Amino acid sequence: MGVVAVSIKCGKFPHPLTPSRKGRGDCKYQTVKRCRIAGVTVSTVNILIVEDDPLFGVSLKRSIESAGYQVSLAKNGSEALQIASEQRLDLLLQDMQLPDSNGLDVMQDILSNQPSCRALVMTGYASIEIAVEAMKRGAFDFVTKPIPMELLIYKFRRLVEFRQMEIEVEFCQGKKGNIVSKSPIIRDLLATASLVAETSSTVMIMGDSGTGKELLAEYIHNASKRKGKPLIKVNCATIPENLVESELFGVVKGAFTDAHKDKPGLIEEADGGTLFLDEVGELPLQMQAKLLRVLEEKKITRVGGVRPRQTDFRLITATNRNLRSMVEEKTFREDLWYRLNVIPLSIPQLRERKEDIPLLIAYFQMHHQQGQEKLTLKISPEALDLLCCYSYPGNVRELKNIVEQLGILYAKELITPRHLPLSLRESTWIGHLFESFPVGRLLKDAVSDFEMRYIEKVLASVSNKKNLASEILGISRKSLWEKLVKAQ
Ligand SMILES: Nc1ncnc2c1ncn2[C@@H]1O[C@H](COP(=O)(O)OP(=O)(O)O)[C@@H](O)[C@H]1O
Ligand SMILES: [Mg+2]
């Protein structure tokens, strides 16, 4: 089993899921130290290397430790099982051939007790059958020795960072309802929302579709003293116009032909609790006037009725339209707008808080379930990169749908870029590339330009290591060398 020379510098990595762009010799890896979230320390990622070759095992351990991680080393299967029984493991680097047992049996044993642990299998003998067998038995990924240390660390670093995200998600659960975020903007928004929750003030939530407006409304309701009372959600865009009034205000028997009995409206049902009017910009003008009256008088009268009833509800509205300009166009009443816009809360688009993307992916994949079985998706580092740079016009909802789709279609496979939706693949890296691509050139020149730029990018991401770059590119070292010479 080969011994690999290692040289790794330790430092802070700019983005958790993108390779260093600094290039030549400047290989930096993120240090996952004990991290503090909301003032509390979250435990670090625990790594176990199971490797019987002492030289390789120790050098691997040292290099990973020098990147800032906590690592244990086991020389054989029984030591590995012993360590696994004593501590929570997040990552397992598993050699296939061990003196006392089969590496895959050891791995399977560990994974059955620690399902959230990710296993990377290392073997001296490359064969498709072994790889398939390893993946079937729960391995996350597979590498063949001798392993270029940078490649191992690249794969490994992404796995660790993703695991770190999962730990953050586990930790944050319940603290902020189901709102998962590490963005400072969202943190401030939630702080304001918590303060507002203690009052009965009217709140208006603004944000594009899928940004989490409804989730924020739930958060406010659950953080308020109205929590035990109903939260009534009304989507103003989906109730037919002729039914809006009776739905909201209720009807008395005989008010119109279909009104066979007295029926309370949704506003009345929210008594003591919260009324959430989603897409309030879609409310017809005539209804806007009636809603304004209810807000002023705190009383409602059912359709066909005469007796006003006292109501007590907190109103939260949401809109993805610019109500201010609707006021100017006279499609939304100005006096109502003032009434609703007491506490405005605005949720930014997902692309404006990209740091939330890996965290949300970790969250959605952890909550992915198939039937009764909870599954952890295997998303490759390359696929994660793509998922992290997409612009998400449908915001968090779109990201959630993509992760769910991947879970349904590829629950047991390693998800690589080719598994991602075409729209995402096209609009991300090709899209970015072409933004700055000059037109008016011959196709062959454009193609070779593209080729060179891509090769340079790959080389930079692996600190100019040509053997590793050629492996990633899928070409021989010789042909990489020829391309580089030709380009000079
Ligand atoms: N920060 C977040 N953390 C977890 N889930 C989120 C977050 N933001 C949005 N979601 C999820 O995304 C989906 C869309 O959110 P929703 O509140 O319905 O958006 P909107 O009302 O703005 O269209 C929902 O399934 C919601 O649970
Ligand atoms: Mg909504």
Structural account:
With 488 residues, the chain is an alpha/beta fold. It folds into 4 domains: 9-172, Rossmann fold, CATH 3.40.50; 184-347, P-loop containing nucleotide triphosphate hydrolases (Rossmann fold), CATH 3.40.50.300; 351-434, Helicase, Ruva Protein, domain 3 (Orthogonal Bundle); 437-487, Arc Repressor Mutant, subunit A (Orthogonal Bundle), CATH 1.10.10. Helices cover 45% and strands 15% of the residues. It has 19 helices and 22 strands. The strands form 8 sheets. The chain has a 5-stranded parallel sheet with strand order 6-5-7-8-9, with helices on both faces. Strands 11-14-17-10-18 form a 5-stranded parallel sheet. Strands 1-2 form a two-stranded parallel ribbon. Helix 2 packs parallel to helix 3, helix 5 (149-172) crosses helix 13 and helix 6 (184-197) crosses helix 7 (213-223). The chain is elongated. Mean pLDDT is 82; it is low at 1-43. The structure holds adenosine-5'-diphosphate and magnesium ion. Magnesium ion is lined by residues 213-214, 278. Magnesium ion (MG) is lined by residues 213-214, 278.
